[in-house]
Amino acid sequence: MAHLGESDRIEPAVIEWLLAGDPAIRWQVLRDLLDAPPEQWQAERARVEHEGWGAQLLAQQDDDGLWAGGACFPSPFSRELFEAEGQPWTSTLPVLHELMVLGLDPSTARARDIVTKVGTNARWEYDDLPFWGGEVEECINGRTVALGCYFGAGRLDMAPLVERLVSEQQPDGGWNCERANGSTRSSFHSTINVLEGLLEFERSTAGTPESQAAACAARAAGEDYLLQRHLFRRLSTGVPAADQFLRLTFPPRWHYTTLRALDYLRAAAALTHASPDPRAAEAVEQLRARRDPEGRWPLDHLPRGRVWQRMEEPGMPSRWVTLEALRILRWWES
User: Is the pTM of this model over 0.90?
Assistant: First the structure.
């Protein structure tokens, strides 16, 4: 295990608690915190398809390969329901995003079947566009690129959508879903979704050398947009841009948090071998300060909206947040 400062030492009881959780937690603890051999964490990862949270999400899939009959929204779903309930998380895009975060193995027959059926049957609510081609909003297209590269296993050509995202980058280095409505300033939310998509594209080594280089350059500028703001502050005044950015949440959905940004930077560094940027230090200290006396982190918040399952409860110690926090600190101190 990589060296950690005394204050960041992982208590054996915390590891035991994490390993008592869902297979989606266990395989990532084995890989990211315990340096288990690949055959061990891969065997645990295989259980995601058949047990626990991953299996429960897969059980909700319809025969046509979709969830809740829609791409971004269930079908039917009305503006009145949106205002009454909040955005729903039961349709194909958010469920696939959850399955990716849980770590469903993309090489399995089940995952390959999902890719095929979604490509055949899923259409975006915007202009009835085909799912894997993306639609108009950058935050949706960023997640679509991430999903296509992760689950597509080289069978999907995500380069055209990546090229579109690169062309839509704002002058300040980030992205904004309101660009089509005239916005020229970036959004934390849109930017993190695009960055995660570009990272999956680079990790997949898909596309051409030129498209990979363009994605890498765009991703570096997007990271700088966040880091200039120390991951949560306004560039103009230095005040926190939004209180909710510091909340500890899971699943990530489309929402930006410093926890999500730090875990993204950790994952990016694993690919590029870059050293941690000191501009992220304040966000790391904010995260470190939330650790409880038992060495765990709480879940602060769940977004409104219908879901297939509630994995954890707000106000309670969270295995997800604790896993993310510990691997972030391990990367930061290594």
Answer: yes
Helices (H) and strands (E) in the chain, counts: 14, 0
Q: Residue 83 domain-assigned?
A: yes
CB-CB contact of 187 with 175 (8 Å) = yes
Task: Please write the tens of the pLDDT for every residue from 104-140.
Answer: 999 999 999 999 999 999 999 999 999 999 999 999 9
Helix axis angle for 23-32 and 38-45, nearest 10°, is 160
Structural domain count of the chain: 1
Q: Does residue 268 sit within a domain?
A: yes
3-class DSSP state of 187: strand
Burial class of residue 233 in the structure, from the number of CB atoms within 10 Å of its CB (0-12 exposed, 13-18 middle, 19+ buried): middle
Q: Which of 217, 169, 215 is nearest to 190 (CA)?
A: 169
Q: Is 4 part of any domain? A: no
Q: Which of 241, 334, 247 is nearest to 297 (CA)?
A: 247
Inform me whether the pLDDT recorded for 51 exceeds 60. Answer: yes
Residue 24 lies in a domain: no
Nearest in space to 259 (alpha carbons), one of 208, 316, 328: 328
Using pLDDT thresholds of 50, 70 and 90, give the confidence band for residue 7.
low
Kindly report, residue by residue over 56-76, the tens digit of the pLDDT: 999 999 999 999 999 999 999
Cβ–Cβ under 8 Å, residues 283 and 232? yes
Question: How far is Cα 160 from Cα 138, in angstroms, rounded to an integer?
Answer: 14
Q: Name every residue whose Cβ is closer than 8 Å to that of residue 2 and which is 6 or more positions away in sequence.
A: 330, 333, 334
pLDDT at 1: 39
Q: How far apart are CA 95 and CA 110, in angstroms?
A: 14
Residues with Cβ < 8 Å from 304, sequence gap 6 or more?
85, 86, 87
Domain that holds residue 65: 40-285
Distance between CA 65 and CA 58 in Å, rounded?
10
CB-side exposure of 81: number of CA atoms within 13 Å?
A: 11
CB 330 within 8 A of CB 33: yes
